Structures are given as structure tokens and as C-alpha cells.
Amino acid sequence: MEGTGITPQTTTTAPASRAPGTLTLLITGEVHRPLSVAQLRTRWPQHRAQVVFDCATEGPQRHSFEGPLLREVVAAAEPSFDPRRRKDRSRFLLTAEGGDGHHSVPAWAEVDEDFGDSPVLPATRMDGRDLDAEGSQLVVPTDRCGARYVSALTRLRINACLPPAERRSARVARRA
To answer: What is the pTM of this model?
Structure first.
């Protein structure tokens, strides 16, 4: 992906054995198939991102991350939007939750190829080492600061951003 610092990788790494305490990533919300982090390395092509971001506490950080494109992972979870309708896709938000309580909320349109086409990764490797024990890390290579990077990624939720009247109707329907 020219100009993004992302290099597609065509190789995949064999899945590591799940050690006790290994974190997993669960994709939930308005999707049809939840996925685990163990599948991230083997089910999709791996991409490499060389990133530099400004950390508020530690200054500039330089790292190399590897992982699949977030849009491919979420698309495989079968979000409940109509992929042929741009306006339907553009109303969905992704909420990334980390093991340390940090949250980040990118819009689906940021990662969608028809909109922002941002090469966001749920990274499975950092600086050449596997992140199995620490958990996957959400990496936003186009960000200048690291605030939307989420370490120990445990949950990625995809939901529609509904107008207030539709939110009330959805709550009532869930209670019934």
C-alpha cells in the first residue's frame, strides 16, 4: 500500500500454542460470526507497518507491527450492514477495548476501501516478536500520536450509530 508505510506480507505464521493467560480478541456486536485472536495469523494475509507515533509520556516511538487488515477481519465476521450500500456501511462504528481499560472508537468508514482506506491492523507481532502473551494490538499507522493504539486488544465491537428514535426502538425491541 503505497504511501502508508504498510507492506503486504504473503506469508502466514503457524498458530502458537495457547499458553495460560494468553489474551484473545473477540469480535462482537452486530456481526454474525465472532472470531478469536488465534485465527488472526493464519486466516488472512499479514501486512507490515513501520510506524512512528508521538507518545505523550515517552516521546516518539518507532515500531514495526504485523497483522491482517482490520477491514478484512471484520468483514469475515459478517457485519450486519449491506456491503453494497455505502450509506449503510458508513453508519457503523468500531469500538476497540484493551485489557488495560483503554478504548478507541474508529468509524468503519475509516477502514473501508471506498472511504478512508486506512490500513488499521490488529497486530499479532511487534518488532519481530509474537504478541500472544500480551494480546493483539490495534495499530493505526496513519495517526501521528499513539492515543488510538489499543494494547492487549480483547474486544472489537461493531455497531450502527443510530438516530435517537431508532436507538429507543432498538432498546424496546431487545426488552420484548
So the answer is: 0.76
